[in-house]
Design a protein that fits this description.
heterodimer; A: alpha/beta; Rossmann fold; 11 helices; B: alpha/beta; Alpha-Beta Plaits; nine-stranded mixed β-sheet; 10 helices; 11 strands
Chain lengths: ~290, ~290
């Protein structure tokens, strides 16, 4: 079983559209996991059935029992997150600011503070409209454990893929270089970087690749909208060569990306021309590389 | 007045709007643009300027002093993030898991875990005429954006609070970095595109703003592509649409080279003027 993670550093480069197309092309061979738990969109194209839903709790959150609180203020004093403001004549925990370190509970002289499991979101086991199994999630608003929810999605995906003997786990990763991306990358066999030849696309590609390198995972790259800036594309190609990253394909600027999405279809279902040809070749190439 | 530019989905034009708007407004008044997308800060690519300050930003982590340790294990017990681990007589600190809560350090009976600074990123302060640009950049391998966002906000409050208009370019998504970046602003502009992904992520962003009790309005980017669902959604939910930036391949091309759009595309400048007027009305109401 091979784990393929699709990431981009910068958002809006076509990561989810391309992932969905590969899910279509892989057919029965693949389990799909959406690790972009912050702003998950893959389900809009693959229409999973949300067959099984489970709550996910991660980390802790402090709660003050006003019955026992003497307003001594020691909790607020030790809190480094300013999460225990004094309002309306009593101390109260701000659930968004609380990091769940439990230091406040340790210093409370009357044991008035209890730490409770923090709700982080939901995760789902589904079958997509293409008949592939899919694990996905929805982060609770303002939740600060997206990395842990990503790890949960990945672990559940692995367990399920092994039990039903799928050849590939295809993972839609998250943007940025922080904890959700780190969690997406760990344990992957291949990273597919989606970029565009804009100065921000190139900048973000280089930053996220620095992170990928530290994981020593084999990487490939698709350059989307390669024709909007020729110099930019040349710069990317040079970078790929220098870093020994496989150049999988260059895709021209094509509004069928958006039209397919508006039609709730993958690109390879909607487009009957060059996009489908390029993506089909790309998927074959990736399969060969990781074989 | 503090205004955040945010969006659920990445790549909808946060940085495009932030940089063009900041530059446009600075023709008339003092403006500060702060890039809080510390994982992938891009504003500086579009706005040059003279660097007037650069400083390293640190987070505090415990450092184990073996000679002082009596092996009691209180530190490991205090840490809820598994960042302090005890192996026999040996204490191991994992800085990337540390949330800098100080519990291990301050509860240690023998002062064997003093807190020491560890670099987590870098802040750059640039100036270009009326425009100040603050950009913070998280070091590769650092997983937590929130502490750097907090320190960046502190820097702006300390040094630039006199500016009439302060714009904050937020990170994408709906989790803790976005909350941290938007919680202290007066108004949020959500930027989206008229596509199913744009709509879905706009709804998440709207839910987040309502949960935080923030006033907000919407700007539509790449208007003309996709469908009408974003407009219908805004109309049905009483959400004001401030401006609609046209879908245009020229925009993608100019953006890709790091150029400001309002200087070259009149339709873009026209819509930006609407955003400017909206902000000036807000300031009037606010005062």
């Amino acid at each position: 079983m091979k784990e393929i993670v699709v990431i981009s550093g910068k958002g809006g480069t076509g990561k989810t559209s391309i992932t969905a197309s590969f899910a279509y092309l892989a057919g029965n061979d693949v389990l799909v996991a959406d690790c972009d738990v912050d702003a998950a969109d893959l389900h809009l194209l693959l229409k999973p059935d949300f067959a099984k839903e489970e709550d996910f709790y991660s980390g802790l959150i402090a709660e003050i029992d006003q019955k026992y609180c003497t307003n001594c203020g020691r909790c607020a004093n030790v809190c480094r997150f300013d999460a225990i403001p004094f309002k309306n004549n009593h101390f109260e925990v701000d659930s968004i600011d609380c990091e769940g370190c439990a230091y406040c509970a340790k210093v409370c002289p009357t044991s008035a503070i209890e730490l409770k499991a923090a709700y982080s979101g939901k995760w789902f086991t589904s079958t997509t409209r293409l008949n592939s199994p899919m694990i996905h999630a929805r982060l609770g608003i303002g939740s600060d454990n997206s990395g842990k929810l990503v790890t949960k999605v990945k672990n559940e995906a692995k367990i399920l893929a092994e039990s039903i003997s799928k050849s590939y786990i295809l993972i839609d990763g998250s943007p940025g270089i922080g904890c959700p991306v780190v969690s997406s990358l760990s344990g992957a066999n291949f990273v597919l970087l989606i970029t565009e030849p804009s100065i921000s696309g190139i900048h973000d590609l280089k930053r996220v690749y620095d992170l990928v390198k530290s994981f020593k995972i084999k990487a490939g790259c698709i350059i989307n909208k390669f024709d909007i800036n020729k110099n930019g594309t040349d710069e990317i190609l040079e970078f790929l060569k220098k870093e020994n990253i496989e150049h999988i394909a260059s895709i021209p600027y094509n509004e069928n990306f958006t039209k397919a999405m508006t039609n709730a279809q993958t690109i390879v279902e909607y487009d009957k021309g060059e996009l489908t040809e390029i993506l089909t070749n790309s998927w074959e190439k990736i399969k060969r590389i990781i074989a | 007045m503090k205004i955040a530019i945010a969006s659920g989905k990445g790549g909808t034009g946060k940085t495009t709007l932030s940089t063009n708007l900041a530059s446009y407004l600075s023709q008339n008044t003092q403006v500060v643009l702060t890039d809080l997308d510390v994982e992938e800060p891009n504003s500086g690519l579009f706005l040059s300027g003279e660097i007037i300050n650069k400083e390293d930003k640190f987070k505090m982590i415990p450092e184990w002093i073996e000679d002082k340790c009596n092996g009691c294990g209180i530190c490991q017990n205090a840490c809820k993030f598994n960042a302090v681990l005890q192996f026999g007589d040996f204490i191991s600190v994992l800085p990337e898991l540390c949330h800098s809560c100080y519990a291990c350090s301050e509860l240690c009976p023998t002062d064997a875990l003093p807190m020491i600074p560890k670099k987590m990123g870098e802040l750059t302060h640039k100036k270009l005429g009326n425009l100040s640009l603050i950009e913070s950049r998280l070091s590769i391998g650092e997983e937590q954006a929130v502490p750097l966002i907090k320190q960046t906000n502190k820097y702006v409050n300390k040094n630039l609070s006199a500016a009439k208009i302060q714009i904050f370019d937020s990170p994408p998504g709906t989790s803790c970095p976005v909350i941290e970046a938007t919680k202290n602003v007066d108004f949020v502009i959500l930027i989206t595109e008229p596509t199913p992904f744009g709509l879905h992520d706009l709804k998440l962003a709207v839910d987040t703003m309502r949960e935080m009790k923030k006033d907000f309005a919407v700007v539509i980017n790449r208007f003309g592509i996709g469908n009408d669902e974003v407009i219908d959604y805004c109309n049905n939910n009483g959400i004001e649409i401030i401006a609609k930036f046209p879908n245009d391949r020229r925009v993608a091309e100019l953006y890709s080279k790091g150029e400001l759009l309002y200087l070259q595309i009149p339709e873009f400048a026209r819509e930006l003027e609407k955003v400017k007027n909206y902000i000036y009305n807000l300031i009037e109401e606010f005062e």
